[in-house]
Amino acid sequence: MRAALRRPETYEAIFGIAYLALGAGVCLGVAALPLVAALTLLADPLAAWPTLLVAALPLGAGIAAGFHAFTAARERGIPAPFHDAWHGVRRHGGRATAVWGLLCALLFVVVVDVLAIWATPWAAVIGPLLGVLVLLGVPTALLALAGLSRVPALPLRALVLASAWLVVRRAPLALLSLLVLAGWGMVLLAQPVLGVLGVGGFALYVLWSNSAAAWASRRDGGCIPVVE
User: Fold this and answer.
1) Residue 96 · residue 148 · CB < 8 Å
2) Per-residue pLDDT for 161 more than 70?
3) How high is the mean pLDDT of the chain?
4) CB-based contacts of 79, cutoff 8 Å, min separation 6
């Protein structure tokens, strides 16, 4: 450990990750502006939850931009988060919004079903199933957003199917991503600005690392082949 701390490369790696995380946090903050505006302007945000889902659509492009910056930095060896994030938005923004839109649609259906079965005998039967759908849908969307940069030639349908399979195949990584999201969510509730600009980039880096490891396992033959 002491020998590693004496090496200049160690500090360069630390500052590089911090710079990448800062850039990703700024990109996420820009993408979150519509959601922040909706939360601020709506008198009762919880009652207008469909509006919040619509306002959250740009988050897909923001997360994909951060993931693209991380991937480019690893391949090139030099961090350039703002340039790479902008390139990621231009290249993957449309597909990223489509992926995130599918997740928002899933959440819409789940919330509607929960409201419909609340305080009914069906809640004990359908409730756990809806919870499982959310627990699978969130990491699937994150894996798909990371896959936009790792496997750009993969069609959107095949990308989502491969991501869903990887979530099941690499369940520990998906569970870790959910834990990171839960911790990040608690920080956001307590300190929104710190959660987005401060912790957000580092949380995205961990989520991207988990997704990259899952996609690497597919290339190593750990996943069923997907028609591309």
Assistant:
1) yes
2) yes
3) 85
4) 16, 19, 20, 23, 69, 73
CA 143 distance to own-chain centroid: 7
CB 210 within 8 A of CB 138: no
Q: Does residue 40 have a pLDDT over 70?
A: yes
How far is it, in rounded angstroms, from Cα 10 to Cα 116? 54
Question: Token pair 């409201």 is at which residue?
Answer: 115
Q: Token pair for residue 131?
A: 């919870």
Per the listing, tokens 């994030």 go with: 85
pLDDT at 173 > cutoff 50:
yes
Among 90, 57, 59, 74, CA closest to 150: 74
Q: Would you state the pLDDT for residue 76?
A: 81
**Distance of alpha carbon 187 from its chain centroid, rounded?**
16
d(CA 114, CA 127): 7
Please report the pLDDT score of residue 51 as a whole number. Answer: 92
